[in-house]
Amino acid sequence: MPSRDTVGRRRPIQKWSQRQFLRVYGVAYAILDGFLSAGTEKQSATIRVIDGDVPAGAFRDLCIFAHFDRQGRVDDHVLHYLHHLRRAGREVIFVTNSADLSDPCIERVRPFCSAIIIRENKGYDFGSWKAGIQQSRNLDFYDTVILANDSVYGPIGDLGEKITHMRQRGLDFWGITDSYEVTHHVQSYFLFFENRVVTSQAFRAFWAGLPLYRFKWSVIWNGEIGLSQRLVRAGFRMGALCGYDDLRKRHGDILKAEEAKAFGGRVNVSRVLWKLLIRDYGCPFLKVDIVREQPDCALEIGDWAAFVKGHADYDTELIHNHLARVRGA
After folding, report:
1. Pairing state between β 3-4 and 173-179
2. Picking from 6-10, 125-129, 271-275, which range would have the lowest pLDDT averaged per residue?
3. pTM strictly above 0.85
4. Is residue 106 domain-resident?
5. Is 20 domain-assigned?
6. Is 171 helix (H, G, I), strand (E, B) or coil?
7. What's the domain count of the chain?
8. Domain limits at 223?
9. What pLDDT, on the 0 to 100 scale, is given for residue 10?
10. What pLDDT, on the 0 to 100 scale, is given for residue 35?
């Protein structure tokens, strides 16, 4: 039925766009989870903290690394990542949501870390990062802080070179990829912050007020998107190694073709254009879920092993071994 305005003229009912639907859906989820998670801002899900072999404060750059494995394991590809973080001059606080992490796995991680935090599986990665921030006690000491997780294989190539390159751009915080799904933000599998951000009131208030969300979408909306938006509103410059706007300029035909297929008209480039990101932008990571699940949206993902061998310095046996374990579980 058409609707009428105040002077009685007929006008068509406006249909919601897909992006509007995502916004409303996200807000509804966030409100619901806000009620369910109310009062958890000061709760701790930490079970125990174990000293690592690296003295706290031995480095001026920090990485808080979030880990989760359903079987309570730490695979070799995770150790590879931790090793390269150390090579890049990072102190690492390792936070696992696998409460049953075994002692042998703890010993495998210990040489790379200043602390190992074992906690209940609450709040997803943002809950883990909050626990790591609380454990660090004095973020002001660090020149830079990285928040990272084990949802990727990598680093592919020299992570330190990528960090140096990005810091020369004068950004306040950045990620490997950004997204316009819902609204503009950097994707949270790798987040890099300069000291001026981590010492800001906006950053501190975000973590102080962050509850232990129960739903993944709430974490995306209030965590991944919410953190980016709060920092941008505070005046900080945001960017990405593989920026969406730059992709549109350099590879507009490919991006537009994929956007036309996507719900909401925007794509997750870390999943869809994985090959192009590695080849043309030197992206240091490959998402675990697209290799494991091989979704149709991930272009030519069946070719991942040959492509990585041909274009990147990374031992693909690390991926094969991980896939063999999780697929056989």
Report:
1. unpaired
2. 6-10
3. yes
4. yes
5. no
6. coil
7. 1
8. 46-328
9. 42
10. 60
